[in-house]
Design brief:
Radius of gyration: 23 Å
CATH architecture of the largest domain: 3-Layer(aba) Sandwich
GO molecular function, one term: alpha,alpha-trehalose-phosphate synthase (UDP-forming) activity
Number of domains: 2
Strand content: 15-25%
CATH superfamily of the largest domain: Glycogen Phosphorylase B
Organism: Acetobacter indonesiensis
Family: Belongs to the glycosyltransferase 20 family.
Helix content: 40-55%
CATH topology of the largest domain: Rossmann fold
Protein name: Alpha,alpha-trehalose-phosphate synthase
Shape: globular
Length: about 450
């Protein structure tokens, strides 16, 4: 097999290339450790419009991986990334078509940037390369490469959900997008539902079904070790001391309307109402780093959460107890692992998610002799393989309340039984197995004539 060529919207920053901190870089760590590899994508930098004709691909090599990046202009970033990828495709794929704000101009910028990626990547390709393209930002890239004469096997993986055709067709040009996806030799999605939705769309558009299920995982051994070691970290010890022996609930989510955060706060408020015996005797820490803060929907969501946290704390708090500890800044991964280890319950309640690796990280972080309880939304991609969590409908505040009460009063024997049934799947489907399975399938494809 030749090189693995990874293409994504964003390439890891230089500081994260040797020690990946999260996201796609962690998931691909094993795949990128073998042989010579190329990772191509946006640098994260924006340049003035007048400089775009002069831009070149920047090359940096770390060990066996060559990182190749290009800059985007301000208008390309706005139209391709902010408006079309995250203002149209993201809400649509998360079943929130009502939040789309479509213009044909943004669609044209989206297509132009995909064409730019193809043109800049083409000279870097070598015979025998396997090309693996990632996520919704780059749906049309495979076809753009084929149009330039690329015959190498090209795979595509979608990390977020894919909606049913009845919803997908709300996107102007959806049929063209589906037909362009035929350029990929292998298409991977997180769940059976997502693959079925995409294949139904292919069928309607007269295209051969190619979507397959490749559920993504974590590196459980590494994360479990981080969690154990994290207990000795000064800031984890500080958190533990502040708990004063109280049961500890944790939620960790990027600020996004797909994560069900307003609904989660309502569920926690219902928990305090329905089970007043827990007032003053439990600590709930919600960590929600702000993302896409300049987008109106995200700004409004943050205002809603700020207001809800303030109202709940004002109504239920006391001079020596704050019902919700609410952080909007990121917390380093090694600290999160220790925080998970301390937590008696984790709230993972998205309205819709591709997989949700927080659920798997929480299970990996637990002490099997005295584990905490995972409360998980039915609509997380991880739910079908984690049925021994307490599964809830995030739209039902009382159901979240009941699950919290059950988690905090559950006997140790039941907690251990549930964890012992969850643990094997977390260890079986890992980031490494996900990458190996996908690359193996792609490598098996016969090179196009």
């Amino acid at each position: 097999m030749g090189r693995l060529v990874v293409v994504s919207n964003r390439v890891p920053a230089a500081r994260d290339r040797q020690q990946p901190a999260g996201g796609l870089a962690v998931a691909l760590r094993d795949a990128l450790s073998e042989g010579q590899c190329l990772w191509f994508g946006w640098s994260g930098q924006q340049i003035p419009e007048e400089d775009k004709a002069e831009r070149e691909v920047s090359i940096d090599k770390v060990d066996n991986v060559t990182y190749a990046t290009i800059d985007l202009t301000h208008s390309e970033f706005d139209g391709f990334y902010q408006k079309y990828s995250n203002g149209i495709l993201w809400p649509l794929c998360h079943y929130r078509a009502g939040l789309m704000s479509y213009t044909r101009a943004d669609r044209e910028v989206y297509l132009d940037v995909n064409q730019l990626f193809a043109e800049k990547l083409l000279p870097l390709l070598q015979p025998g390369d396997l090309i693996w393209i990632h996520d919704y930002h780059l749906f049309p890239l495979g076809q753009a490469l084929r149009d330039l004469g690329v015959t190498s096997p090209i795979g595509f993986f979608l990390h977020i959900p894919f909606p049913p055709w009845s919803l997908m067709k709300a996107l102007p040009g959806a049929e063209r997008l589906m037909r362009n996806m035929h350029a990929y030799d292998v298409i991977g999605l997180q769940t059976e539902d997502d693959a079925r939705n995409m294949n139904d769309g292919f069928s309607v558009c007269g295209v051969e079904a190619r979507a397959q299920v490749f559920p993504i995982g974590i590196d459980p051994e590494s994360f479990a070790e981080q969690a154990r070691d994290g207990l000795e970290h000064a800031e984890v010890l500080r958190l533990q001391e502040s708990l004063r022996g109280k049961p500890f609930i944790i939620g960790v989510d990027r600020l996004d309307y797909s994560k069900g955060l307003p609904e989660r706060f309502k569920g926690y408020e219902a928990f305090l109402k329905r089970y007043p015996e827990h007032k003053g005797k439990v600590v709930y820490l919600q960590i929600t780093p702000v993302s896409r803060g300049q987008v109106e929907e995200y700004r409004l969501l943050k205002e809603e959460l700020d207001e809800a946290a303030g109202r709940i704390n004002g109504m239920y708090g006391d001079f020596d107890w704050t019902p919700i500890r609410y952080l909007t800044k990121p917390v380093p991964r090694e600290l999160l692992a220790g925080f998970y280890r301390l937590a008696d319950a984790a709230l993972v309640t998205p309205l819709r998610d591709g997989m949700n690796l927080v659920a798997k990280e929480y299970v990996a972080a637990q002490d099997g002799k005295d584990p905490g309880v995972l409360i998980l939304s039915h609509f997380a991609g991880a739910a079908p393989e984690m049925e021994d969590a307490l599964l809830v409908n995030p739209h039902d505040a009382d159901e979240i309340a009941d699950a919290l009460h059950k988690a905090l009063t559950m006997a140790q024997s039941e907690r251990c039984d549930r964890w012992n049934r969850l643990q094997p799947d977390v260890w079986r489907v890992t980031a490494g197995s996900w990458a190996r399975d996908f690359i193996g399938m792609l490598a098996a494809k016969v090179k196009r004539a």
